[in-house]
Fold these 2 entries.
Entry 1:
Amino acid sequence: MFESLTGRLEGIFKKLTGRGGLTEQLVGETLEEIRVALLEADVSLDVVKSFTEGLSARLVGQAQKSGLTGAQQVIAEVYQEMVHILGDHRATIALASKPPTIIFMMGLQGSGKTTTAAKLALHFKGQNRRVLLVASDLARLAAIDQLKVLGEQIGVPVLLPPDGTTRPSDLYPLVKRRVIEGMYEVVIVDTAGRLTVDSALMGELKELRRLYSPKECLLVVDAMQGQEAVGVAKTFDAEIGVDGVVFTKLDGDTRGGAVLSIRQVLKKPIKFVGMGEKLDRLEAFFPDRMASRIIG
Ligand code: GDP
């Protein structure tokens, strides 16, 4: 994860070691190197700007702290700024005061939406909650089978569309009935994806949102995708409304741009990260732990 950014930052910090106290020139040079490293990691321009400005405000004119070398002082401030752009605090899914808590999984095809729906179902099952998965991605028949298989693997029931169902909204009355019968506390709806954002998809999601009134609309984003993923997220948020983001495939080596940009651009928290294909590889997102991992 973030190997090249971590490597770049380590190089910058290493160069600082042995250069004594924090002179204005040294701070200036370091800020410039960090700026370039972030741009190369594909972090959005505005976020890079706010990061280096925040860092500059902390470092410029800062007296040398006793017991800390200049390098240690810079690392501490980069860490703080990184925690800040990642969202400062952990954001969780708040369950509805009156069950069921309905969660929409949204995202483009291939983002890992269906897998993440099952991972989240397992997460809630682990909290001893009664969970129902809903296969509402009628655009991709394989997605229905995939969710059925995943549900069987984790022992969570999946509401499947009856043969001949063409409109996802037709599933809603069945979901309502099943929730009452099964006293489900958490309902996770795997909504349709597409290869790109289009108006038909947005229209479908808007209609479903109106019908279900979900407590959480989670956007699943492939961390390998870079800046274009941030653009897609902005469209989902403007059209449907996004309550939180789940980044998938963080077990792979991503440049990190989308992960570092999305909180500031979207003003919505990252809630979970996918760390592998297996269904237990979903982790809560902690900005401080992620910042430590990135800094190395
Ligand atoms: P969907 O089209 O958005 O529903 O995507 P899928 O759930 O079918 O996932 C697409 C591919 O990404 C599958 O091969 C998944 O196993 C894989 N995938 C999903 N999440 C992760 C993850 O966190 N790490 C890795 N390495 N692969 C993942």
Entry 2:
Amino acid sequence: SKDGYDHFMLKEIYEQPDVIKKSLDNKFPHGKLNLMDQSFSKEELLSIETIYFTACGTAYHAAEVGMRAMEKLLHKKCQSEIASELKYYQPFIDEKTLLIVVSQSGETGDTLAAMREAKEKGAKILAVTNVVGSSIAREADKVIYCNAGPEISVASTKAYTTQLISLYALAIDFAQKLNCISDQDVEKYIKELYTLPSKVQELLDHREKYKDLAEKIKGAKSIFYLGRGIDYLSAKEGALKLKEISYINAVAFQSGELKHGSIALLEDGLPVVCIISQENLVDKSISNVKEVKARGAYALAIAQKNFKNVQEVSDDTIFIPETLDIFTPVLSVLPQQLLAYETSLALGNDVDKPRNLAKSVTVE
Ligand code: M6R
């Protein structure tokens, strides 16, 4: 049931503080990381040369953030590829490869196909999925469950944030087993992860403004999403969410890349959502806001709350609580989910069942 919410999507957005907490408790029983047989042993990890991430859609956006977290903690280059591409191109996958597969349903045809192909080549497979006993869960060597509970709305929300939690736990697990991080850092990460449910709640407590924002953007024929580094990954997820349920053409760009072509598309009133959560990139990102404003665009910033001067250059600003850089997507995605929801609603669309889409895409 929708528990009194108008749509499953909204209900699932509001479940996030709770399911993030559940997901954390599953991976950090008594506040200590313990993935038990959900992960590989130190010996197994030592035999792995390459770590690859694959998935589709929203799950892929989570996978990419997971990859960045893994790289940061292991000081090691990792790779990622969309599942429907990876299925047909994997000359680099062998028995020294670990393929991390992310899928809410565990039944996505493209993801399953890429995983089977890699398994055939001898790769080890670790699945991050939400559905116990799903095909992907059954065929993987190791499975980490997201603990999001059933996700009904086609637009994925709580699956994304709990996929992130699962992938962060995995990165910490690998880094700890391979002696890449200190015990203090492990403590620091765990402590910060446990602050996320209340920070998410804080964002959800201020829902009013999204209706007005939706009114401002609902007539646009296209909307840009900009971000640098990990913010770009979050922007991609925000753009997909909006596109999927509002049917407005939403496109994400790496902020710095805009000037290499796409800036030609900027015109009066075109909405540009700018994600600004990374301390080291804030000045550059502010220049980007100025750049789009100078072309008459409408700039909506989603910024970390200490970056006060973002507000001065943007038309509207939503502040998100502070957290460690790699965890910011858990927070920056929330305003983007609510914006997509309200825009879809304002346009009179079927929020939970967008046209041409199915919850689980089992065809390749
Ligand atoms: O079940 P999966 O996580 O494997 O699904 C992957 C995508 O089809 C899915 O995330 C899709 O992009 C969502 N509808 C986006 O909201």
